[in-house]
Amino acid sequence: MSSRTELTAWQALEAHARDMQNKHMSDLFDEDDLRFAKFSLKSPNILLDYSKNLITEDTRKALIDLAEACDVESLRDKMFAGEKINRTEDRAVLHVALRDRTGEPLEADGDDVRAQVKHELERMRSLVAQVRGGDWRGYTGKPMTDVVSIGIGGSNLGPLMVTEALSGYSDGSLNVHYVSNIDGFQIAQTLRDLDPETTLFVVASKTFTTLETMTNASSAETWFLDKAKDKSFINRHFIAVSSNRPKAMEFGVAEENIFDMWDWVGGRFSLWSAIGLPIALNLGMEIFEELLEGAFEMDQHFLTEPLSKNAPVMLALMGVWNNNFLGRKAHALLPYDQCLHRLPAYMQQAEMESNGKSVNWSGERIDYSSVPLIWGEVGINGQHAFYQCLHQGTQIVPADFIGSVEPTVAVKGHHDALMANFFAQSEAMMRGISADQVREELSAKGMGSERIEEIVNHKVHEGNRPTNTILLQKVDARSLGSLIAMYEHKIFVQGIIWEVHSFDQWGVELGKVLANGILAELAPDAEVGAGHDASTRNLIEYYKKAR
Ligand code: F6P
After folding, report:
1. CB 146 within 8 A of CB 174
2. Quick check: CB of 273 below 6 Å from ligand 1?
3. Where is the active site (predicted)?
């Protein structure tokens, strides 16, 4: 047995879950007028309502006992203090330092983190002002019109998601495009209508070795030199963001055009660093810094609020409750805001790359679930696609509903209609509709009893499906910063409770290594290695013959 399941707090929750299984949330609401007040909280820029979970005050207390037994608070403090809590990679975890506004000294591995962050932010300000102000000139003397960000995973998903989320605030002075896929279609389509004379590339890669990014960067360079001819012009058109300066320089990026990243920032937590440069180029540095401010506010909340009033902690604990004690193995993210349409994809990496692990801190296999499958889509579109399954399917999938009081762009009649759906869906998932209610409804419509009995079971909706409601005033830079930071800390807390290492990602390495080997075998004269399994070998041979 692993240590977590041996905890008294864990076992108390297992026993409590057996009692709760037979309860219905609808009754819990009917019995307690104060349920919303008890199970919702205000955090910076966000109202979190977690009352539509199958919980009582005893559940919350038992979950907090578990968080305490797992030392959540002391590990949180260690993270903020720059201790090497990423033990498998022997690194500090300091994305919070990237948005820290206190100015207090902070060291990691003997380096003055605060000074490093300040310096790179200053360089970002200067570059953004030059490019956006038209002072940064290309090789023919023209100002930039387009930025192409080349990166993948954490070097793409965050900046892309934020750029989309805040697109309503763009002044349109610089177009930003994102290329991540090694499928040549994406870069070809992106470059088709661009002009090398006015295009600035930002090659974002922490390692500067990622195959997809390097291949796309080389194609971008070829496209650029096709017209510019002279390699010395690259320094007006290529910027790099990386923790591997030598590799970026080897690629041909001028030293002064390289922005630093550090080992203490994980890729999926890096949008706050110069990895966020495309955001700042698109929206301006002021908006980027608002984003940092919003995240900082959430960091302070996470650091100082007691666990029961702490939004990331309660969000994490609801997830643990649903996953580990009620057996829910998936979790949906449902933004009711078109601007947040990339949020589920971004959170998939953040949550699943962080906590998709199956051994604990001692390297022993865990005997409980770590992260559930995270998936989702813009909620209102999902209603007409997969919500049927959320309402009546055999799997119960807890969901986060994310919406805003004010729309980014007000078009008469739209926002209330959107939000009516937002409120209705989670109410329906919680309350459901019983057989008797269905009978009553159909009979009121004049349906005969024989026909009613034929269809009644098909219309019954059991309800009791858990949801969290996350309400922002508006999707703007500040609230988005808070929202992302809230989820980052949720992931951190869950990683502690599951006792998994949230800040490495060694699972993705095997596929990368095999892909590099297979790439060599795809050369026309190369042999396909006998070491492959029969399926892989035959597929590769089929591909080589058929192409
Ligand atoms: O998918 C694995 C991964 O290592 C991610 O963690 C990372 O965000 C992504 O690849 C890109 O890595 P890099 O920034 O080094 O190109």
Report:
1. yes
2. no
3. 353, 384, 512
Instruction: Please indicate whether residue 348, judged by its CB atom, sits closer than 6 Å to ligand 1.
Output: no
Q: Is 211 in the pocket of ligand 1 (CB under 6 A)?
A: no
Of the residues 221, 353, 377, 499, only one is catalytic, namely 353
Residue written as token pair 């006998």 = 530
Tokens describing residue 414: 């739209």
Strand pairing category for 107-108 and 199-204: unpaired
Ligand 1 atom showing the smallest separation from residue 353 Cα: 6
- The percentage of the chain sitting over the pLDDT mark of 70, rounded to a whole number, equals 100
Per-residue tokens: 275: 């990895």
Q: Fold match between 4-69+305-431+465-498 and 97-290?
A: yes
Q: What is the pLDDT of residue 69?
A: 98
pLDDT at 512: 87
| Domain 4-69+305-431+465-498 falls under CATH 3.40.50.300 | no
Considering only the C-alpha atoms of the chain, give the largest distance between any 2 of them, rounded to a whole number of Å: 83
- Please say if 512 is a catalytic residue: yes
ipTM above 0.95, yes or no: yes
Q: From ligand 1's centre to the CA of 345, what distance in Å?
A: 15
Catalytic pick among 42, 119, 142, 512: 512
- Torsion angle (degrees, nearest 10) of CA 318, 322, 323, 327: 170
- Which positions ≥6 away from 482 have C-beta within 8 Å? 43, 44, 45, 46, 294, 295, 297, 298
pTM: 0.97
Three-class SS state of 360 = coil
- CA gap 167, 198 in Å, rounded: 21
Return the number of other C-beta atoms located less than 10 Å from residue 438's C-beta. 18
Q: Is residue 152 lining ligand 1, measured as CB closer than 6 Å?
A: yes
Atom of ligand 1 nearest to the CA of 505: 6
**CA 207 to ligand 1 centroid distance, Å:** 8
Q: What is the distance, to the nearest Å, from the Cα of residue 532 to the centroid of all Cα atoms in its chain?
A: 34
239 with 201: CB under 8 angstroms?
Answer: yes
Residue 108 CA to chain centroid, in angstroms?
Answer: 25
Type of residue found at 100: D
Side-chain-side CA neighbours of residue 134 (13 Å) = 2
* Other residues' Cβ atoms within 10 Å of the Cβ of residue 15: 11
Tell me, using a 6 A CB cutoff, whether residue 270 lines ligand 1: no
Nearest residue (by CA) to ligand 1, atom 6, is 267
353 classed as catalytic: yes
What is the domain class of 97-290 according to CATH?
alpha beta
- 384 is a catalytic site residue: yes
Q: CA-CA distance, 441 to 446, in Å (whole number)? A: 9
What's the half-sphere exposure (Cβ side, CA atoms, 13 Å) at 187? 24
Rounded to an integer, what distance in angstroms lies between the CA atom of residue 163 and that of residue 275?
A: 12
Residue 518: partners with Cβ closer than 8 Å, 6 or more residues away: 540
Give the Cα-Cα-Cα angle 302, 473, 173 (nearest 5 degrees): 100
Choose the residue to mutate in 160, 251, 508 for probing ligand 1, maximizing ligand atoms within 8 Å of C-beta. Answer: 508
Domain boundaries in the chain?
A: 4-69+305-431+465-498, 97-290, 506-546
